[in-house]
Every structure is written in structure tokens, then in C-alpha cells.
């Protein structure tokens, strides 16, 4: 009798889970976030051994991008991109983008150009197969808590930008921010661009609040707009110009973000 009761309970579990997924917003949110993380780990685990034969190379980013792109369809998220033609240049450059949530990964792979790698926090390197796959894809890791290490990474990256014709993607806010305005920018990305004497391309991703919120535990389908702003030149600028450059780019991106918010 006890065995039959246990079997009955086990049969009811999938039905209960389905009902919770359909009618409980928090459970729905947790399931989608869990699937997102599991997908990233699974793809990293599958791809890492394949790209290991090539070794650490920016070209491996193509496979990493291809593995993440399908997620937008699973979640019913439509991507609208404006201004992507600005990135159609063969020279090295720095991309700066606002940072809201882990969903930024979907926006990044939507517009990331060839031979472009993100700068990521060093903690990511130690996340098992995810860290291994990121390292093999040429992602640059920085220790945010050690200023000397961060300066050294920026210096080496500035050299690599021109030598290897790379593009670098940076989130200058330094942390996730789901408010209606951007946080003040850290200056590392701008020091990098000035040191390498390469242009900056600001990228603004519209807020997710219509369909995603970690505070409200909401995760539904929706539309995300990505706007690539015109290039900002750094040719002839020196380190003393970095504060003004940082403020000018922040203001341009803040205005673009406000424009995207007003259209929602």
C-alpha cells in the first residue's frame, strides 16, 4: 500500500510542477533562471573539449556565441538592433555597454562583432567548465579588488588590441544595475581606449522591466532594443582627458537609455 501511495505521489509531482510553472510567478521565474544557468553550463561543458584542440583563441568566441543565441527563442525574447552598422569597421576598438542582469549575455551575443572578447571579473575563471570555456575563448579576466593587477591587464590589453586587431567589450558600471538610470562609470575602459588610441562604441540595451525583474521574480516573453551609438574618437587624447571622456560617453548613453525608456 505504501509503495502504491509513493508511486502515486511521484506521478503527481510533474503535474504539480506544471501547475506551479503556469500559475505561480515566482516558481516560473526560478525555473527560467535555472534553465538559463544550466544551458550555459551545459554548452560550456560540451564546447570546452572541442575548442581545446585550437587552444586559447578569440576565434573560439564564434562557437560560444552560437551556443548562446538560441536562448532568446526559448524565452520568447525579440531583439531589435539599431545602429549595428557603426560596428562594421575592421580596426580595433572598445565597446562599452550598460549592465543590468545576466540577460545582458543575450544582448551581447546579438551584436558582438568578429574578434571581440569581453572583459570579465576574475571570479568567473574559477567556475568550472564555464571558466575554462571562457578562457579558451580569449575572454580577458580582471581582478576588480586589486588596482595594480587591473592596471596591468589594461596595459597588456591595450598592446594586444592593435597587435592582434581585437575588439573588447566592457561593462563600465562594474556591477549589475536594474534601476532606470546608469551608475557612474569606472574609468578602466576609457583608459584602455586612450592608451591604445582606438575609438569607443557605446552600446545601450533597453530596460527589461516589461518582462524580467529579479526583485519582482518576473520572467516572461518580451522585446529588447539594443542601440549602437556612433563612434567616439580617442585619437590624440591623453590620460588627463579620461575623466571628461568618461563623462561625455556616460551622458550620451544616459540620453539614449532615457529615449529607449520613453518608448516603452
List the helices and strands and how they pair.
Blueprint: H1 2-23, H2 25-52, H3 61-68, H4 71-75, E1 77-82, E2 93-97, H5 104-111, E3 116-121, H6 128-136, E4 140-142, H7 147-163, E5 167-170, H8 188-196, E6 200-205, E7 212-213, E8 218-219, E9 222-228, H9 242-262
Parallel strand pairs: 1-9, 2-5, 2-6, 3-4, 3-5
Antiparallel strand pairs: 6-9, 7-8
What does this structure look like?
The protein has 264 residues and is of the alpha/beta class. It has nine helices and nine strands. The protein has helices at residues 2-23, 25-52, 61-68, 71-75, 104-111, 128-136, 147-163, 188-196, 242-262, and strands at residues 77-82, 93-97, 116-121, 140-142, 167-170, 200-205, 212-213, 218-219, 222-228. The strands form two sheets. The chain has a seven-stranded mixed β-sheet, sandwiched between helices. Strands 7-8 form a two-stranded antiparallel sheet. Strand 3, helix 6 and strand 4 (140-142) form a beta-alpha-beta unit. Helix 2 runs antiparallel to helix 3 (61-68), helix 2 (25-52) packs across helix 6 (128-136) and helix 7 (147-163) runs parallel beside helix 8. The longest helix has 28 residues, at 25-52. The mean pLDDT is 88.
> Number of helix segments?
9
- Global structural class: alpha/beta
Order of helices and strands: HHHHEEHEHEHEHEEEEH
What is the end-to-end distance?
57 Å
Shape designation? globular
Q: How would a textbook summarize the main sheet?
A: 7 strands, mixed
> Any low-confidence stretches, pLDDT <50, length ≥5?
none
Whole-number radius of gyration?
Answer: 21 Å
Amino acid at each position: 500500500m505504501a509503495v502504491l501511495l509513493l508511486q502515486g505521489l511521484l506521478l503527481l509531482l510533474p503535474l504539480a510542477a506544471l501547475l506551479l510553472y503556469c500559475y505561480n510567478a515566482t516558481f516560473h521565474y526560478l525555473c527560467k533562471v535555472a534553465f538559463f544557468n544550466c544551458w550555459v553550463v551545459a554548452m560550456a561543458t560540451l564546447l570546452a573539449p572541442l575548442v581545446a584542440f585550437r587552444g586559447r583563441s578569440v576565434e573560439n568566441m564564434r562557437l560560444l556565441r552560437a551556443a548562446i543565441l538560441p536562448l532568446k527563442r526559448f524565452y520568447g525574447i525579440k531583439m531589435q538592433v539599431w545602429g549595428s552598422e557603426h560596428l562594421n569597421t575592421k580596426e580595433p576598438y572598445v565597446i562599452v555597454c550598460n549592465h543590468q542582469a545576466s540577460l545582458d549575455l543575450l544582448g551581447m551575443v546579438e551584436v558582438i562583432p568578429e574578434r571581440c572578447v569581453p572583459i570579465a571579473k576574475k571570479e568567473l575563471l574559477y567556475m568550472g567548465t564555464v571558466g575554462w570555456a571562457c578562457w579558451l575563448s580569449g575572454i580577458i579576466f580582471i581582478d576588480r579588488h586589486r588596482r595594480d593587477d587591473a592596471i596591468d591587464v589594461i596595459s597588456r590589453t591595450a598592446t594586444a588590441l592593435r597587435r592582434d586587431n581585437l575588439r573588447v567589450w566592457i561593462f563600465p558600471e562594474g556591477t549589475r544595475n536594474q534601476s532606470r538610470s546608469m551608475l557612474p562609470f569606472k574609468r578602466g575602459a576609457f583608459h584602455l581606449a586612450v592608451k591604445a588610441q582606438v575609438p569607443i562604441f557605446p552600446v545601450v540595451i533597453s530596460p527589461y522591466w516589461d518582462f524580467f525583474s529579479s526583485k519582482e521574480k518576473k520572467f516572461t516573453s518580451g522585446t529588447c532594443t539594443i542601440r549602437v551609438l556612433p563612434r567616439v574618437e580617442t585619437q590624440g587624447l591623453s590620460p588627463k582627458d579620461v575623466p571628461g571622456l568618461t563623462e561625455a560617453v556616460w551622458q550620451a548613453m544616459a540620453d539614449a537609455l532615457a529615449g529607449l525608456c520613453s518608448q516603452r
